[in-house]
Design brief:
This protein is 31% helix and 26% strand. It has helices spanning 4-7, 9-16, 60-67, 134-137, 141-154, 171-182, 194-202, 216-223, 237-247, 287-303, 319-327; strands at 18-24, 33-40, 48-57, 84-91, 103-106, 117-121, 125-127, 162-166, 186-191, 207-210, 229-234, 248-256, 276-279, 310-315, 335-339. It is globular and about 65 Å long. The protein starts with a helix and ends with a strand. 46% of the residues are buried. NADP nicotinamide-adenine-dinucleotide phosphate (NAP) is lined by residues 59-61, 142-143, 146, 166-173, 190-193, 196, 211, 235-236, 239-240, 257-258, 280-282, 326, 329, 331-332. Pfam families: ADH_N (PF08240), ADH_zinc_N (PF00107). Keywords: Acetylation, Cytoplasm, NADP, Oxidoreductase, RNA-binding.
């Protein structure tokens, strides 16, 4: 005997219009990430697109937001995730740049990327080259846009300058290594494991150092012949900022990209070299800056120097483990990705 739902086509369609998505209904530890199978598939409004998600990058900030200890808090319940790569499923009435079936990646979703489908504004969506698979596509937007912003839009890096990427083995770090090398900088990178150092060296760094080694700061100073570096892209400022000020050359800049707490520094250390400490907030990008970052990234993919390195991949149902692992990492090996 058939159920009344299976006999009614409209009811069956309505029943099908749900998807799996991770929902957060209260702030807390990784256990608040709940995979639901009954979340309505969002409909794209006039300037929006609906993307069938094939991969979604995991960013550390998503763990800070989930914990409730972050300055920006979404309204509950919500679905985390921004860095989606996938295929256009449908488009809003005013969208002309994309059509069903296009491979794309996006830097921001409106409905959340840890899901089977996600809605995004079309102007935050970009074509995904056949040169990259979906996991690599999910490793592009936030890491590379942040790295380019830190190096050039805020750090004013120039060819011939030196840069220390302090934490180069993760998503943003590898992006920074590749971009800095492509733009003619001398690139030094750090990682916490041998494997991480090798990844850093394969992705543009001229020299790699281990930030878990007791004397690695001395090794960096020796490598620069005590001249220091022009720029530091800092992934863990609460640990390294005071030491960074001793690694800079005259008029050097520390770009604060990652920070998980406070640190005491002596401001006097900035005076003798006229050095700067500059915060980087990718979420503050203007439309023009986003276009600029996208152009650099799309050109880099076509030219072949921009190749995201994908690290651990997790099925959507293991999202809590992914959040545990990204914060308590024993050594990054590229970008962490969720696969719906
Ligand atoms: N400001 C912004 O707009 C913005 C945008 C994106 C990301 N972020 C932040 O930037 C940071 C990096 O993001 P991600 O996506 O690259 O994270 P990720 O993939 O988890 O990588 C973290 C990196 O930090 C390194 N690290 C660990 N201990 C370190 C230490 N003592 N000194 C220096 N580096 C250390 C790790 O190296 P090992 O694992 O090899 O030890 C790894 O390279 C995070 O804090 C994130 O929240 C900020």
């Amino acid at each position: 005997m058939f159920s009344s739902m299976s006999r009614c086509p409209m009811a069956a369609a309505a029943a099908r219009a749900v998807m799996r998505a991770v929902r957060v209904s209260e702030f807390g530890g990784p256990e608040v990430l709940r995979l639901r199978a009954d979340v309505p598939i969002p409909a794209p409004k006039d300037t929006q697109v609906l993307i069938k998600v094939h991969a979604c990058g995991v960013n550390p900030v998503e763990t800070y937001i989930r914990s409730g200890n972050y300055a920006r808090k979404p309204a509950l319940p919500y679905t985390p995730g921004s860095d989606v790569a996938g295929v256009i499923e449908s488009v809003g009435e005013r969208v002309t740049a994309f059509k069903k079936g296009d491979r794309v990646f996006t830097s921001a979703t409106l409905s959340g990327g840890y899901a089977d489908y996600a809605v995004a504004e079309a102007d935050t969506v970009f074509p995904l080259s056949d040169k990259l698979n979906f996991s690599q596509g999910a490793a592009v937007a936030i890491p590379y846009f942040t790295a380019y912003r830190a190096l050039f839009l805020k750090g004013r890096a120039k060819a011939g300058e030196s840069v220390l990427i302090h934490g180069a083995s993760g998503g943003v770090g590898i992006a920074a290594c590749q971009i800095a090398r492509a733009y003619g900088l001398k690139v030094l990178g750090t990682a916490g494991t041998e494997e991480g150092m090798n990844i850093v060296l394969r992705n543009g760094a001229h020299q790699a150092f281990n930030h878990r080694e007791a004397n690695y700061l001395d090794k960096i100073k020796e490598y620069t012949k005590m001249q220091g570096v022009n720029i530091i892209i800092e992934m863990l400022s609460n640990v390294n900022l005071a030491a960074d000020l001793h690694l800079l050359s005259h008029a050097g800049r520390v770009m604060v990209v990652g920070c998980r707490g406070s640190i005491e520094i002596n401001p006097r250390e900035t005076m003798n070299k006229e050095s700067s400490i500059i915060g980087v907030g990718r979420f503050l990008e203007t439309e023009e800056e986003r276009r600029q970052c996208a152009q650099v990234v799309l050109e880099g993919i076509e030219a072949g120097w921009l190749k995201p390195v994908v690290g651990p991949e997790y099925p959507l149902q293991e999202v809590a483990r992914a959040h545990e692992d990204i914060i308590h990492s024993s050594g990054a090996r590229g970008k962490m990705v969720l696969l719906p």
